[in-house]
């Protein structure tokens, strides 16, 4: 999808405003994806349902009980839901962890129609107030960007969140690169791209260039495991290599052949995640 024809005659700022709304609006699931989501959602029946007040509405989260070893939070990617992260539950509960899976705003059963990193971080704070402290966070794709941003002081007046360990699965490292890719995909001019990125500063108080996962992990050196398929075409392996360059506290574990989404359901992914969080 490119900028709508009538938008092409608008000013660069107006084009950027239109594209930012598109950027923050999750695409509806295809019929096949909806059927698949219904199947995996059956796994949520074993969880306690949590409704958490958030910005005039509610967030949906699910809690699976372990034996009190600590709480691990699962964060899905763009257009995902808590249900797609439930494949991690069995391995984590068997290690004694309580597991909490969140539907981000505008996803699953959470209220809202929009989502961006700042809104995701605010949602994490609301979740943490009810379910914290957290032993660890496991995050896929867009959820990974929210997870590392949550460690920082970059989102308005929100203080940094604290969790003992972090697992990033096929996560983007550079938010500037995410915006540049989106702008190219929609044929946005360089001038309009600058306006598009300015929305980040308006929302957070900081420029998009500040949202670099490797720099944030370097400044907040918690033990981190990065799982990524080298052939991933949605989030390039370059992101994983950048995370790994943040320091010795980051471990890169390539998982060839699993792509961007199948990596979530691979046995090796579950085993590596549970072992890392339990170590």
UniProtKB/TrEMBL annotation:
A family per Pfam: Hydrolase_4
UniProt superkingdom: Bacteria
Entries under InterPro entries matching the protein: AB_hydrolase_1, AB_hydrolase_fold, AB_hydrolase_sf, Hydrolase_4
Gene3D superfamilies according to UniProt: alpha/beta hydrolase (3.40.50.1820)
Gene Ontology cellular component terms for the protein in this record: membrane
Domain Serine aminopeptidase S33: 69-176
Name of this protein: Serine aminopeptidase S33 domain-containing protein
């Amino acid at each position: 999808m490119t900028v709508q024809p009538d938008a092409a005659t608008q000013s660069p700022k107006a084009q950027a405003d239109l594209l930012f709304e598109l950027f923050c609006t999750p695409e509806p699931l295809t019929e096949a994806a909806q059927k698949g989501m219904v199947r995996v959602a059956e796994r949520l029946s074993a969880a306690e349902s949590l409704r958490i007040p958030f910005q005039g509405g509610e967030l949906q989260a699910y809690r699976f009980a372990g034996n009190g070893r600590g709480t691990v939070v699962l964060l899905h990617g763009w257009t995902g839901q808590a249900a797609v992260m439930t494949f991690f539950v069995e391995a984590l509960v068997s290690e004694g962890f309580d597991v909490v899976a969140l539907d981000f705003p505008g996803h699953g059963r959470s209220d809202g129609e929009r989502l961006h990193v700042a809104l995701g971080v605010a949602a994490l704070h609301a979740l943490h107030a009810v379910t914290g402290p957290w032993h660890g966070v496991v995050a896929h794709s867009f959820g990974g960007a929210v997870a590392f941003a949550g460690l920082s002081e970059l989102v308005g007046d929100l203080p940094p969140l604290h969790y003992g360990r972090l697992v990033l699965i096929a996560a983007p490292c550079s938010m500037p690169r995410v915006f540049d890719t989106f702008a190219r995909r929609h044929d946005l001019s360089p001038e309009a791209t600058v306006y598009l990125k300015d929305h980040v500063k308006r929302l957070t108080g900081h420029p998009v260039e500040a949202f670099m996962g490797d720099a944030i992990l370097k400044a907040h050196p918690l033990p981190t495991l990065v799982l990524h398929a080298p052939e991933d075409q949605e989030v390039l392996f370059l992101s994983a290599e950048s995370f790994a360059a943040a320091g010795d506290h980051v471990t890169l574990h390539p998982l060839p052949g699993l792509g961007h989404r199948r990596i979530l359901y691979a046995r090796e992914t579950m085993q590596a995640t549970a072992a890392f969080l339990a170590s």
